[in-house]
Design brief:
The chain is α+β, with helices and mostly antiparallel strands. Helices cover 26% and strands 34% of the residues. The protein has one domain: 2-Layer Sandwich (STM4215-like). The strands form 2 sheets. Strands 1, 2, 3, 4, 7, 8, 9 and 10 form an 8-stranded mixed beta sheet that branches. Strands 5-6 form a two-stranded antiparallel sheet. The radius of gyration is 16 Å and the shape is elongated. The protein has helices spanning 2-12, 27-30, 48-54, 89-104, and strands at 19-20, 60-63, 67-71, 75-86, 105-106, 109-110, 114-118, 122-124, 127-139, 142-143.
Length: 145
């Protein structure tokens, strides 16, 4: 499920926009300033603003841990939060809309994901975040479209 979601996002977003899996959720917050050769700067800055400046100037997309929304013997429903984060609210919103289209598809060609929750863009320190939650239903481990 997360592999499919990641592939869809990476295909739709510019190659310069990182798509981080759930286990890398702390990477931007803990990012340490690097010099031009990639070495850590002694006593350099650290945090989200440094990550955005050095690794993701066009923003990034964070896939969060899926939450079970219902399971039985054959079917499972999952809710997966997907956040777009950038240094400007318009960029975060544009990334979130690109992600939405990649996951939900178009009216004439729907994707396997349904947006179930959409948050307004909000400020998180010096950055902006726009998070939506998507639902996918699996039948015997395969997405139901």
């Amino acid at each position: 499920m997360l592999d499919d979601l990641t592939r869809r996002l990476q295909a739709a977003l510019p190659a310069t926009v990182p798509v981080l899996p759930p286990n890398e959720i702390l990477v931007p917050a803990e990012w340490q300033e690097e010099d031009a050769s990639g070495d850590l700067v002694p006593h350099g800055e650290r945090g989200l603003h440094v990550y955005l400046r050095q690794q993701a100037p066009g923003g990034y997309v964070q896939i969060e841990r899926p939450v079970s929304a219902g399971v039985n013997d054959f079917m499972a429903r999952w809710w997966i939060p997907v956040a777009a984060i950038a240094d400007h609210p318009d960029i975060a919103y544009a990334l979130a809309e690109t992600a939405r289209r990649a996951l939900t598809g178009r009216p004439d060609e729907p994707g396997p994901y349904t947006r179930v929750l959409a948050d307004a863009t909000q400020s998180i320190g010096t950055a902006s975040l726009c998070r939506s939650t998507y639902e996918i239903t699996e039948l015997d481990g395969n997405p139901v479209i």
